[in-house]
Write a structure and sequence with these properties.
Helix content is 65%, strand content 3%. By secondary structure, it is mainly alpha-helical. It has a two-stranded parallel sheet with strand order 1-2. Helix 3 packs antiparallel against helix 6 and helix 6 packs across helix 7. The longest helix has 19 residues. The radius of gyration is 22 Å and the shape is globular. The chain starts with a helix and ends in an 8-residue tail after the last strand.
């Protein structure tokens, strides 16, 4: 009798239960303290059209991949906003943490050549 109440073919109780579990699992993929570093690295690489797995194919990826100053500023704004949200940091602490992150994992900024003409 209990089985019929939970999920027999004529009752949708079990399918609703599994739908709720799937919804909860989607929420676990949110950015949190445990995955923020990986998220920011992936976000940064995505901005330049690369993926984290691409680093396995290129031993010199750090020297070969760069971002423009505009991309860097956009990434910086996103990262600081995300750090403030996840860690409940104030702006100064978020900027300080971003600076540390960028020194460890940040892509180099491609400088535009100076035109002396």
């Amino acid at each position: 009798m209990r089985l019929k109440q939970l999920g027999s073919p004529d009752n949708t109780g079990l399918s609703k239960h599994f739908t709720n579990i799937r919804e909860k699992m989607k929420h676990r993929a949110r950015i949190n303290r445990g995955n923020i570093t990986r998220h920011l690295i992936e976000y940064q690489l995505d901005m330049v059209g690369k993926r984290l797995v691409d680093t396995l194919d290129d031993d010199r990826w750090y020297f070969n991949w760069t971002m423009t100053r505009e991309e860097h500023e956009q990434f910086k704004r996103y990262a600081i906003r995300t750090l403030k949200k996840v860690f409940k940091f104030n702006t100064n602490k978020a900027k300080e943490t971003f600076q540390w992150f960028y020194e460890q994992f940040g892509l180099r900024i491609k400088e535009k050549p100076i035109n002396y003409e």
